[in-house]
Design goal:
396 residues; alpha+beta; four-stranded antiparallel β-sheet; three-stranded mixed β-sheet
């Protein structure tokens, strides 16, 4: 048993309201991360690479983690809370690892599952659920992040085919993916709209280049995707959705995982600080015996507990009736910002050691700076919540 496992991290006994199945899911994912991720992730982060991404995908597929909240087509069909707990444990290891699973299941797989044809589902979802095929999700562009409606990627008809041209940026899994869900602007029936396309990455004209020199999410594959005259058959389009509803629905699914995952990063940093406070001595006693350190620990514990309870409430609500986008925004805005604050406070307890790769705190803090921005910046979630409260849109 690790030192942190012997110390109480949950004074409110949240575990008591989890089912046996939920506890088993959490335990299984935690064990996998302890075996396959934690011994290596500090090195991966320092090197700025994820060399075993495909092997990890296969391991995750064997456990049923990929698209685990989807029904059929080889997916596990588990609850939202089960999925959330898995995301928490994955991100307690590293945000990049949770991103791999989240992009696969909640973005690429979900888009095909929710909006694809039966043929598209049969072709891709069983392979993706098993980790035998990796997916990516192309929405963000170099000049259009928070305003996807202004995307420049275009799809036009050429005879019976579609032809895609454009560039997508900051695409997780992009350069290792077998299939990409690409969102593009089209002209149909005299009007402009946005459609999704299922794009095999071996299609001529599709290329992806890994982005290097990141200071965050370094143990993750992040890419620029370029489409130059990518020709696709007519049935490559996702038939069941048009407009921004498609990609935004996918983002809500992925944001739900972030609500939980950010608490995993926060828990890891808090645990490291708690352990350190009981072993590091200054002025002849452990620093955990000083009032200011205990005040920091108490505050961190409170925010960690509140965020976990918020995630659990939203998970139960999602399982019972589904979530509105503004409810998801409340969760992401609160939990990511609180997780960053926990990491920063944990760093102060560790002092200079807080910046060392020997401890996970700085790695989590840096990763969370990306999590704060992707799948909706802090400002955008504030505006979503503000609109829900006032019934006034303030995006422009």
């Amino acid at each position: 048993m690790s030192p942190s496992a012997a110390r109480p991290l949950d004074l409110l006994d949240i575990d008591s309201v989890l089912t046996d199945e939920e506890l088993a899911v959490r335990s299984t994912v935690r064990q996998l991360c302890e075996e396959a991720v934690l011994p290596h992730v500090a090195h991966w982060y320092e090197a700025g690479e994820l060399p075993g991404a495909r092997d990890l995908a296969l391991r995750f597929g064997e456990l049923g983690l990929l698209g685990m909240h989807l029904e059929g087509y080889g997916c596990a069909g588990m609850s939202a809370v089960d999925y959330g707990l898995a995301c928490l444990e994955l991100e307690a290891a590293d945000s990049g690892i949770r991103s791999l699973v989240s992009v696969q299941g909640s973005l690429a797989m979900y888009a095909i599952w929710a909006f694809g044809s039966e043929e598209q589902k049969q072709e891709w979802l069983p392979l993706m659920a098993a980790g035998e095929a990796i997916g990516c999700f192309g929405l963000t562009e170099p000049d259009h992040g928070s305003d996807p409606a202004s995307m420049r990627t275009r799809a036009h008809r050429d005879g019976g085919d579609w032809v895609l041209d454009g560039t997508k940026m900051w695409i997780t899994n992009g350069s290792i993916a077998d299939v990409a869900v690409i969102w593009a602007r089209t002209e149909e029936d005299g009007r402009s709209t946005i459609r999704g396309f299922v794009v095999p990455t071996d299609a001529p004209g599709f290329s992806a280049t890994e982005i290097r020199h990141k200071m965050s999410l370094r143990a993750s594959v992040t890419s620029e995707v370029v489409l130059e005259g990518v020709r696709l058959p007519a049935d490559a389009v996702l038939p069941e959705v048009t407009g921004l509803k498609g990609p935004l629905s996918c983002l809500s699914e992925a944001r739900f995982g972030i609500i939980w995952g950010s608490m995993g990063a926060a828990r890891s940093a808090f645990s490291a600080a708690l352990d350190y406070s009981t072993s590091r001595e200054q002025f002849g006693r452990p620093i955990g015996g000083f009032q200011l350190t205990q005040a920091k620990l108490a505050q961190m514990h409170g925010e960690l507990t509140n965020g976990t309870l918020l995630a659990l409430h939203l998970g139960r609500l999602k399982d019972r009736q589904g979530l509105r986008p503004d409810q998801v925004s409340v969760g992401k805005l609160n939990n990511v910002s609180k997780a960053i604050a926990i990491c920063r406070t944990a760093r102060t307890i560790l002092g200079a050691n807080g910046i060392s790769a020997e401890y996970p705190v700085m790695r989590h803090a840096n990763n969370l700076e990306s999590v704060l921005t992707y799948e909706g910046t802090e400002e955008m979630h504030m505006l979503v919540i503000g609109q829900a409260l006032t019934r006034q849109a303030a995006y422009r």
